[in-house]
Amino acid sequence: MTNDIPGIKKSDVAMIIGSDTSEGHPVIAARFKQAVLEGTLKLIVIDPKEIKMADFAEIYACQRPGTDVAVLNGIMNLILKNGWEDKDFIKERVEPESFEALKAEVANYTPDHVEKISGVPAAKLEAVAELFGKAKAAAVYYTMGITQHTTGVDNVKSVANLQMLCGNMGIPGGGVNPLRGQSNVQGACDMGALPVCYTAYQGVAVEAVQKKMEEFWGTKLSNKVGCTMTVAFDKAYEGEMKAFYIMGENPMISDPDLHHIEHAIDNLEFLVVQDIFLTETAQKADVVLPATTYAEKDGTFSNTERRVQRLFKAV
Asked: Where does residue 306 fall: left (phi above 0), alpha (psi -120 to 50 degrees), or beta otherwise?
């Protein structure tokens, strides 16, 4: 999250997309509901399913699965058409070439065109764009509904583009706010459990960063970016990768293309899974190793707003 959870009270408008917040993040959902009932927040819910949060929404838009980019681009099309974009933010903080490229791209996503793609009525899209575009502080909240998807990267880029277009970055009550799916996934990313960076998101391919980390750790490091999970499974599918060690992850459930994942796993020569449950992925493993639960270790958890919380072993 670029903003914090209490910042919900500082938003005029909040858009929830790809998140069944009441079920997945009930504490945060309660904050949304409270703000709506107090009259300080207007809620936009965009989801293929009419989730519980839709009962509290000013506008609920039901799109076809897989059409999130079209809907978000359509909103940006209308914001630009009506002059609701934050011109000062764009002038000061957005590269002109990038802005022109965005304008050219979203120009194709007229309300009628978006309706044909997504099923969201043109009039409803216009209402969403007006409510969001005219807000002084508008936030976007999303979860795995738009990330665990074959177009997940494009979905998140579209959310970021929308927020920069409206000047909703770096302000109270704004921001791009993913509600993280696991209890310490934020902490794992902060620590550097990503193929493209070291701790604190310092790029692997940046020479100055590489030298600093080599000096700190006292060893020679590669400047080659590692494989993402998607690329790794593609390589397993093609037979280029022969063995996996999977910890605390269940790709047989979490990946959007399960047939592809199953074939990739079956193609491995050796699979180790370390988990506290015998997951669908673990059932395919050659070796299953035990893991410790949160109650069996000391450490920290970083929650979805990047707040570090101390943890003490109880067992």
From this structure: left
